[in-house]
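Predict the assembly for these two chains.
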Amino acid sequence: MARRSMREQIVDAAVDRFHARGFNAAGVKDITDTAGVPKGSFYNHFSSKEDLAVVALEKYGASRRLQDLEDTSVEPLVRLRRYFEFLRDEIVDLKCTRGCLFGDFGTEIVDHSEVIREAVGQSLQRWATALSGAIREAQETGTVSADIDAETMARFILNAWEGTLISARSDRSADALNPFFDVVFGTLLR
Amino acid sequence: MARRSMREQIVDAAVDRFHARGFNAAGVKDITDTAGVPKGSFYNHFSSKEDLAVVALEKYGASRRLQDLEDTSVEPLVRLRRYFEFLRDEIVDLKCTRGCLFGDFGTEIVDHSEVIREAVGQSLQRWATALSGAIREAQETGTVSADIDAETMARFILNAWEGTLISARSDRSADALNPFFDVVFGTLLR
């Protein structure tokens, strides 16, 4: 495997530290320590923690596996369910101690940083668009009702997922994920 | 009107500062300055910022008007819609620059403070219980389907609301609230 550049090491550490601690509590030194690079090297690569946060959001976004939502070899409703099961398993593996970096920044920092606000908004929009594609396919094949348009439904379901993570972290319990699966796959998409 | 005690002034300022800035970014001095009291007076009333945060959550919770959800003089479905319109109007008045204090703490700080985690969990549970009462009434009168039990539906809708606020803040647009009303009152509760 090719050796990661110092910049890549900092970005990976930032995703981990921002995800674990949030924007304000994750300091530059915490991030460079986690990356195993000198703190002084930070400003060779990034102009600010805010600048790094935007790159970290992109890197985190790439781990959301949006391509799985576009895999037309899998029946759209099966694909949607598997997709949220992937998200669920990730959270359960972390014992419900982390949420979604988009939602984290979307509550903590979007009111205070215009560049992060725009990056979170675009990240959520890309995600909703990928979801809406699979929902639209399911509507076209008649497996899902077309009463609500696919974009509206996608954004609603994504919002519901983000809020579900708040419940799961607050209860520190995977049971808090059940209402999402019950309502989304028992009522909304069926 | 009775003069508020110094403790009440600090709690009111804390709700405002935590809501505007989050737990980490709202410092004790910021809170006491907003309250118009000397910083030194803080520790006469609270042992820590964490201790104050729990009291601020209670105060914020009292402003959620849960009693409106229990007003049986109003038809349950009308009551539920009016309730979320009250929450929506509050956010629109703030130009979508704040969310819900439960959701804010539920992303930023619950993984790092056991007492705050428990307080957020209980706050959300109380809210879901109040919502489920109105949903159950609507199910009993036959205006809402009983396919999904009232507690599950209440928690799901509350989660969806919390996530909707993330979208509204990230887009800084009241339009981001529409999918919630379209799906909740167009499909789930009807």
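The domain at 64-188 of chain A is CATH 1.10.357.10 (Tetracycline Repressor; domain 2). Chain A has two domains: 6-58, 64-188.
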